[in-house]
C-alpha cells in the first residue's frame, strides 16, 4: 500500500510519479489501511489459514494509491480470490454477521465481516470462442486473469493485504 513520496523540490508526488516502472510485483512502501486495517487483515488471515489467497482489487486499490487511507471512507471493499463461491461461503460464514449470496452464480459473495461490508469474488477470466466476439466468463485460479478483465488499467491492480508492500500491477495501471 502506497503513500505520497516527497520529490527533490519538496512537493508531494504520488508513488507512481516517484517510482516510474514500478510494474508487476514491485516492492512499494507500505502504509496503513487506517481504521480498516484490522478487519481487512483479519479477513485475509482467515483465508490464509486455509492456504487460500485473498487480494484487494480494483477501485479500492486505486483510491488507496491516490488518496491514502482517508480515501477509503467511501470505498467499496472488493476482494478477489481463487476460492470458488462454496469455498468463500465456508471461509466467511463463521466470521460474518451477515452473508449475501445473490451474486453467487457469478462468483460473488457479499458479507459483513468485522464490521466491514465486503464483496469477495472468485478470480474470473475471459475465454473467446472462434465463432464469437463475446467472451465466456470462467473462474480462474490466477489473479492476473481477473485483473485483465477490469475496465481500466488503473483498476487492474491488486494488493495482498498480508503483503501490503507488493503491488500487483501487470498492466501498468499507475
Record the SSE blueprint:
Blueprint: E1 5-6, E2 12-13, H1 15-18, E3 26-27, H2 37-48, E4 55-57, H3 59-67, E5 77-81, H4 85-92, E6 96-100, E7 108-113, E8 116-122, E9 124-128, E10 135-139, H5 143-148, E11 158-159, E12 166-168
Please tell me about this protein's structure.
It contains five helices and twelve strands. Strand 11 and strand 12 (166-168) form a beta hairpin. It starts with a strand and ends in a 6-residue tail after the last strand. Residues 1-23 have low confidence and may be disordered. The chain is globular. The protein has helices spanning 15-18, 37-48, 59-67, 85-92, 143-148; strands at 5-6, 12-13, 26-27, 55-57, 77-81, 96-100, 108-113, 116-122, 124-128, 135-139, 158-159, 166-168. The strands form three sheets. Strands 3-12-11-4-5-8-7-6 form an eight-stranded mixed beta sheet. The chain has a two-stranded antiparallel sheet with strand order 1-2. It is 22% helix and 27% strand. It is an alpha+beta fold and 174 residues long.
Low-confidence stretches: 1-23
First CA to last CA: what distance? 13 Å
Helical content class: 10-25%
Number of helices: 5
- H/E order of the elements? EEHEHEHEHEEEEEHEE
Number of strands: 12
Strand content: 25-35%
Quote the average pLDDT: 81
Radius of gyration: 17 Å
The computed structural class is alpha+beta
**Order of adjacent strands in the largest pleated sheet:** 3-12-11-4-5-8-7-6
Shape: globular
Largest sheet, in brief, is:
8 strands, mixed
Amino acid at each position: 500500500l502506497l503513500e505520497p513520496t516527497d520529490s527533490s523540490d519538496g512537493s508531494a508526488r504520488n508513488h507512481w510519479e516517484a517510482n516510474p516502472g514500478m510494474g508487476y510485483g514491485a516492492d512499494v512502501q507500505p502504509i496503513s489501511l487506517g481504521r480498516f486495517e484490522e478487519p481487512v487483515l483479519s479477513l485475509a488471515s482467515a483465508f490464509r489459514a486455509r492456504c487460500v489467497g485473498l487480494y484487494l482489487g480494483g477501485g479500492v486499490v486505486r483510491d488507496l494509491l491516490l488518496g491514502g487511507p482517508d480515501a477509503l471512507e467511501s470505498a467499496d471493499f472488493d476482494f478477489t480470490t481463487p476460492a470458488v463461491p462454496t469455498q468463500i461461503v465456508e471461509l466467511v460464514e463463521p466470521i460474518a454477521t451477515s452473508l449475501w449470496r445473490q451474486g453467487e452464480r457469478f462468483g460473488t459473495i457479499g458479507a459483513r465481516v468485522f464490521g466491514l461490508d465486503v464483496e469477495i469474488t472468485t478470480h474470473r477470466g475471459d475465454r473467446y470462442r472462434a465463432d464469437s466476439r463475446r467472451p465466456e466468463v470462467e473462474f480462474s485460479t490466477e489473479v492476473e486473469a481477473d485483473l485483465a478483465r477490469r475496465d481500466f488499467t488503473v483498476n487492474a491492480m491488486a494488493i495482498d493485504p498480508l503483503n501490503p508492500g507488493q503491488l500487483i500491477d501487470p498492466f501498468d495501471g499507475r
